[in-house]
Amino acid sequence: MRQAIKIGLIGGVVGILLSLIGMVEAFSQRDIIAHVISMGHTLLITVALFMGYLAAKRTPGKGSLRILSNSFLSGLLLAGMLALLVMAGSLINLRKVFINASPLLYSLLTFGLEKGIGALLLLVIGAMSGLLAGIFYLSPGILRRVLIISLGSIVSAGVLQDLLRPTFALWGPLAIINEWLFTANGLTVQGAIGLFILIAAFSLFWSRKGSAIQTGFRQLPPAPQRILKMAGIFILVFILLILPRVLGLFLSEVLTIVGLYVLLGLGLNIVVGYAGLLDLGYVAFFAIGSYTVAVLTSPELGFFSLSFWEALPFVIVMGVFSGVLLGTPVLKMRGDYLAIATLGFGEIIRILVLSDFLRPWLGGAQGIGKIPKVFIGGFEFAGPQQIYYLILAGCLLVIFISLRLRDSRLGRAWMAVREDEDVAQAMGINLVAAKLLAFATGAGFSALSGAIFATKLGSVYPHSFNVMISINIVCVIIVGGMGSIPGVIVGAAALVGLPELLREFAEYRLLVYGAVLVAMMLLRPEGLWPEALRRRELHGEKENEAESESSLKLKSG
Amino acid sequence: MALLEIENIHTYYGHIHALKGISLDVNRGEIVTLIGANGAGKSTMLKTTSGLLRPRQGSIRLKGEDLTCYRPHEVVAKGVVQVPEGRRIFGRLTVKENLEMGAFTITDQRLIESNLEHVFRLFPRLRERQKQVGGTLSGGEQQMLATGRALMASPSVLLMDEPSMGLAPVLVDLIFDTIRQLHTDGTTILLVEQNARMALQVASRGYVLQTGTILLSDNTENLRQNEMVRKAYLGES
């Protein structure tokens, strides 16, 4: 009971916060299902559902009546606080302090109805959401999963409609789906229901038969298994190759940005994920790569006019060299101290580039322009649809190197350093070499990414290399899963790709980052696609119990 | 010539003179123990030997080869391997991965295999639990793992730092049994212990350390009889 009240009040505070910072209002311009529910309402209902679920989960004992009443109560309280906000807003002018407390917000919260009835409806909906979450909590696991997946896909289809609609429109036969599924703003009602049934049926099928299919695959003899795997890889590569043609210009641009972050993330993954050295100045190497290409290729400065490919070896060498240069003074630092020292390094590079002293060579605040595009033979990597291939090639190369490094002797040395520096030395690992190699490799990858970034933009400016980039990359790795290569890709897509696609998010990007990070640490601290080791650490108890049980059985049998 | 010869070592922590001219030697196949109170310099001595701390003066020789200026990983490669204080196993790696990490300096795959077999014969518990994550082992098992991990490097001299620390009395007995077992296998051990009673039972010779200098050195038979040792370290009156 007390728990339910507490959770409901917390939910209310979250709801009021989301409303007062303008998120609800901004989000309600987009409908998830046309004329039925907007993104803003979805946001609030999601909070109510989550809080109701939490209240149900925290209820001591097993009585379903108590669980339901608790989740009902938390939903009611949440809605009650929002209703209070509306009431308070109609009595006094909150706008003096909270500029987002607009009449539009109040009408959204009361569903466009007259205040009293609207507030009542708000209470009913809040309580119902809580109750539904409680019922959801009590329902069997399979139903819960199916519901989550299908509701989640409706919401994502609604959120990503601007991405899906033009893509479908490009492809003749798919245009019919477009008509059926989408209106100008949001999904159609029949589309949403259809999608729900389709996804639910599929996920139901998969949860019933998925494991059977997987074991069936494993029971195949190795030869067909390999053929199937190869076919899978082939299809994946094919999709990757045609992606920019399918997606069009804007989405290809987003893809290239995600791709650059994947490259950066893979590089930092070696430093942070493999060797466990928290580097917050990683943007420095990105800047060094960009500026090296700019200085060597741009005719604007007139020192050199190499082609991109001629400049590339210098870029990598500069990156590796600066990695060692940063690595040497911080060799003896650990953890937080290392993070702060590297943070400083990132800023030093940016400020150096900005300085008047280096202006004749690096262009100062005006940056360097006229960086030529990349050519292979007669093929020009002009726009995002072409540069995509350059980045894809870079990513594949870096993934390949990362995989090889992970399984190498050096990779094992990094693993030991990450786990325990002192003991790593006692195992006969050359700590200095291992750390410097990690910094150097990571810096090399980052410089490569910077080089591509410079040719993509055609110019470089100091302010493109601020500390937020470093933070973003660290977030990508944490959200994706430390040390995991697929994790970096997933993390980059989630943290860099999605905000680019959702214009509503732009303003709340940092807020969403913070919320996502906190939620990740609470719910899935190992990351979205974790490496096996981390998964073992954080969710290992069950498996270990099972293993020790089986070993006990072995002993007794 | 002794296998490990340490001569007149002076080690400083900043201005603090921690080791004031320590000399000791360890012969092949022998267990030598270093006992002393907290802060006497026992762990400093081991850290200096393994290259983690650099002495200002003195020399450390293994089989006549001067190791004094070697870096820690080079010392390990030469065959002086440490079982760190407080076990310090890799908690997130499995038992087998821990052991394989111990063989980092060895590139010969067959030697790694045979060392692994040797460790598993010595500690059958580790064989049973080889897929288990190190952090979930009990204290005694972790000590076995730490010892096994050091043995994976084919050490000429094993430096053991407080192997009995924080273990239940039953497990302390077990650990000292394995030390005896290692001795019969012919391993050379320099054992640092606070549990002087047990240490003086397994070792053949001992050094008593006090505030950075060696107070006494003798065979353990005599040390056990020594009035001062009995009073200060064995708690007898």
Structure overview:
The complex is a heterodimer of chains A (557) and B (237). Chain A folds into 3 domains: 1-138, no CATH class; 142-219, no CATH class; 252-541, ABC transporter involved in vitamin B12 uptake, BtuC (Orthogonal Bundle), CATH 1.10.3470. Chain A starts with a helix and ends with a helix. Chain A has a two-stranded antiparallel sheet with strand order 1-2. In chain A, strands 3-4 form a two-stranded antiparallel ribbon. Chain A contains 23 helices and 4 strands. In chain A, helix 11 (222-274) packs across helix 19 (431-457), helix 12 runs parallel beside helix 14 (335-354) and helix 20 packs across helix 21 (485-501). Chain A is mainly α. Chain B has 237 residues and is an alpha/beta fold. Chain B has 2 domains: 1-79 and 158-237, 3-Layer(aba) Sandwich (Rossmann fold), CATH 3.40.50; 83-154, no CATH class. Chain B has helices spanning 42-49, 72-78, 95-102, 109-122, 124-128, 139-151, 169-184, 196-202, 220-225, 227-232; strands at residues 4-13, 16-26, 31-36, 57-62, 65-66, 80-83, 157-161, 188-193, 205-210, 213-219. Chain B has a 6-stranded mixed sheet, with helices on both faces. In chain B, strands 2-1-4-5 form a 4-stranded antiparallel sheet, with helices on one face. Chain B starts with a strand and ends in a 5-residue tail after the last helix. Chain A binds chain B through residues 409, 412-413, 415-416, 419-420, 422-423, 425-432, 533-534, 536-537, 540-541, 544, 547-548, 551, 554-555, and chain B through 50, 52, 71-73, 76-77, 81-82, 84, 88-93, 100-102, 104-105, 128-129, 131-133, 135-136, 149-150, 153.
List keywords for this structure.
heterodimer; A: 557 residues; mainly alpha; ABC transporter involved in vitamin B12 uptake, BtuC; two-stranded antiparallel sheet; two-stranded antiparallel ribbon; 4 strands; globular; disordered C terminus; B: 237 residues; alpha/beta; six-stranded mixed β-sheet; 10 helices
**How do the strands line up in the largest sheet of chain A?**
1-2
Please name the CATH architecture of the largest domain in chain B.
Answer: 3-Layer(aba) Sandwich
Number of domains of chain A: 3
Per CATH, which architecture of the largest domain in chain A?
Orthogonal Bundle
Mean pLDDT of chain A: 85
Alpha-beta content class of chain A: mainly alpha
Question: Percent of residues of chain A in helical segments?
Answer: over 70%
Determine the most extensive contact between two protein chains.
A-B, 29 and 31 residues
Helices and strands of chain B, in order, run as EEEHEEHEHHHHEHEHEEHH
Q: What distance separates the N and C termini of chain B? A: 38 Å
Q: Specify the overall morphology of chain A.
A: globular
Compressed to H and E, one letter per element, the order of chain A equals HHEEHHHHHHHHHHHHHEEHHHHHHHH
CATH hierarchy class name of the largest domain in chain A: Mainly Alpha
CATH class category label of the largest domain in chain B: Alpha Beta
Structural class of chain B: alpha/beta
Helix amount of chain B: 25-40%
